[in-house]
Design a protein that fits this description.
1003 residues; alpha+beta; nine-stranded mixed sheet; eight-stranded parallel sheet; 14 helices; 55 strands; globular
Length: 1003
Amino acid sequence: MRPTSTAPLRDRRPAPLRRTLATALAAAGVLGLVAGPPESRPTPVRTAAATSNTTTVFSYTKTKNWSATYLHYAPDGGAWTTAPGLPMEAACTDWVKKTVDLGSATGLRATFNNGSGTWDNNGGENYALGTGNITVEDGVIAHSDPCADTGDGTGDGSGNKATVYYSTATTGWTTANIHYAPAGGSWTTAPGVGMEPACTGWWKKTLDIGTAASLKAAFNNGNGVWDNNNSSDYTIPTGTTTVKDRTVTADAKDPCAAQAPDTQAPTAPTGVTASATHTSVVVSWAAATDDTGVAKYQVTRTGGTRGTVVTDVTSTVFSDTGLEEKTTYAYTVRAVDAAGNTSPASAAATATTGEKAPEPAAGTPLGTDPRKDPIYFVLTARFFDGDGSNNRGGSQHVKSGNAANDDPMFRGDFKGLIGKLDYIKALGFSAVWVTPVVLNRSDYDYHGYHGYDFYRVDPRLESDGASYQDLINAAHAKGMKIYQDVVYNHSSRWGAKGLFTPTVYGVRDAQWSWYYDEKNDGFAYDGLTVEPKSGKSYYNGDLWSTAEPAGNTCLNWSKPTGGKSPEGYTLYNCQWPGPTSGMFPKQYYHQCWIGNWEGEDSRSCWLHEDLADFDTESTPVQNYLIGAYDKYIDMGVDGFRVDTAVHIPRVTWNRRFLPAIQERVTRKFGAEAARNFFVFGEVAAFVNDKWNRGSVNHSAQFYTWKERKEYSADDEKAAIEQYDHEEQLGTGNQPTSANAFLDGNTYHTPDHSRFSGMNIIDMRMHMNFGDAQNAYNNGKDSDDSVNDATYNVVYVDSHDYGPNKSSNRYSGGTDAWAENMALMWTFRGIPTLYYGSEIEFQKGKQIDCGPTCPLASTGRAYYGDHLAGSVTASDFGKADSATGQVATTLAQPLVEHVQRLNRIRRAVPALQMGQYSTDGITGPMAFKRRYTSGGTDSFALVTVTGGATFTGIPNGTYTDAVTGDVKTVAGGSLSVAAPGKGNLRVYVLNGPGKIGGDGPYLK
């Protein structure tokens, strides 16, 4: 998104440089971590105990330090015990246990308490436990006996011993299990046996392996995330061995021997605040300090009728939901380090809830691999108008020319989008990227990138029966995902409601009375409601004063600048916001203008006067944003597209925002949903080289990696240290990856151990899509520096730019569009289409001109006229029925092309998730792709436009998904004639045959 100032003030500063503004979660942990048990080991033999309907629940006591622990539970389908439940008995150091008979039930719901009114109910979710041995340690569930093998393993004490130390410093696991088999022996029952904490970042287990001289082992966190040495398992000898970052060191020194026991507790958290909205409370605080680092925080809630509740969190913000109405709650916070040392409690913060809001039920993300889902990108307010009552033109309605076209900037809405989901499904798309949904505030904010109230959905997008939650639920019901555009970098010039909002900007005199409205203290801006005194929904009333207000911080308030507006009016200081005016405090906002777009200040200064730049290294700002986006995660969105990601330091993403996303999705929906929660960032780099003007910090691929060293505990200092460190290392010393590439013809398990959690928009391909061949060559050239380029989001043009930084929508012609699409839908990455490109909508038109021309003449024009009528689709890539104008739209040649491409891609897993190679291949745009997982082995040979020869390939029968042509390979070679521009060939080994019928290009 390109911000557009609409103020009448013209002489303050030069026109700002143009820039672009348009977030699965990281595979948990590192070291070749995989979800589920390692496939390379034999399935353990079940014992009778493993199938009995009893469970032994172990609870960790060191952190809570309760004098007694009770288990309050209900077998699945059964009744709860009488509170407080059954007393648990001592098991071993720091553990208590209770064995319960579940009858015919195969699991139970459980909570814990101290018998005196203090509860651990898993943050209000209760614990869902199964049968067998189960541990609950600080909110983490594992299936093991923490007291087994504590001295000499599982043997009789006379056998060989192996003492294993395992490092979780990189993975961040909060518990560790070892799953092992002595040489010649059987594997333990997954997930193995629990390891004990040895020192910070290390877990230990001594095993009795009988007469064996070594063992095979893998490690897991008890929640389905494994380190199995990239499916090879670890070989560990007798004696003392360390395993760290996939390196096994035999006869190792005790890594904890030199460390004195950590007995120093963290400092008590300060600055605790609590604010209530309806029956939810958001608690935030300043980070505590510790000599070895704070591992987590314990939030204690008192008040209401439910007793005391303690919840563990790892961030400095906690959202407490589902509380009682009109009730005062008090919150204190303690900090806990990795050794379990606990700080004193903070001062209490209180909040009183209001009436319960009629909030819609939360959705559940689909949770599947995001690479399966091609993306359709819509500007919600410009797509389809389902409810005319929420249309708003804003202050520029007449000036822009929109009024003359009866085309208010806020026109499309969720009701319209819900009504046309079948159109998108008929095109074949299974994910929809929507522009930001939070309440915006600017004079021209239909696109959503001027956030004002980040905790509220913009009412101009919602209708009765068509809320944002309704959109999410409707999409999921059709098997479609919703990716929400999110902004962490900046707010509107009005600040951010609930964090900081400047209340006065400047003088209102006779000349400016038309611009500044009369103040109305009883009115709250929501973008939709008309303020009665001014008659405006874009009411401006809290931005002026006739006398200098008490507490004014703006410099030289009311003094003339010496300049004039275009109308000839006197300009005054403080009439318009800016980082150097004194209006925005350092605690919340940066206080400088960008000078170098490839320099450090581009991450810590304002982009534009309309966009107040958050100090994202400030704890209150981090808490505000984390709390806000937790709300949308809880609603069940499937991922975040991250606006202006490059303007926030990578270390801040890696320390704060990305882990917070992972934690929230995991807590709410589980580890599998978190692994597939798709975060993709806009790291705008408008150059054709691999590294953006030689600056690693401003290159897209840089954001896909974790940090490689520790920086200052102060986030602001850490950001500068990280920038300097990586710039000094330079482009030649950046990490590389083979995750996107085949090993010959073989698919290999990708190594996501160093993945940051953020994927990227492929800016380099985007910039070069003026020619498909050029985009292909540039994309390949960058793939070894991206953590996993198979997750790259690939598009030709967008709401910001066309290829080669063109300000116009792509106009290369229908044949070129078809060729680009053929490449995007078969090459690595996730194909993405900007709304209307399927009919070359507004081709050649200027994408954005702000309020200086009508939207109807731009690339952001209203699309609804092309969707009038009805359409139904029960499957992807095919309309069941269509009437009216939408039927004409669906008959266009590029529509038919993209429909068939989507059906072919959906039928061939290699085209969705496969790695690729060009080894042994001739042809301008030719490659082979393979994806192997479980019973799936998909191998495809692809050539786009030109002919190709593939050598060194597996022998067998190959069928073209486009024509149905069958070729039998006996000598490892296959040749394909040129299919023609916009056409392609996809020869699949043991493939499904021809997919769909011939069309204008695929034939």
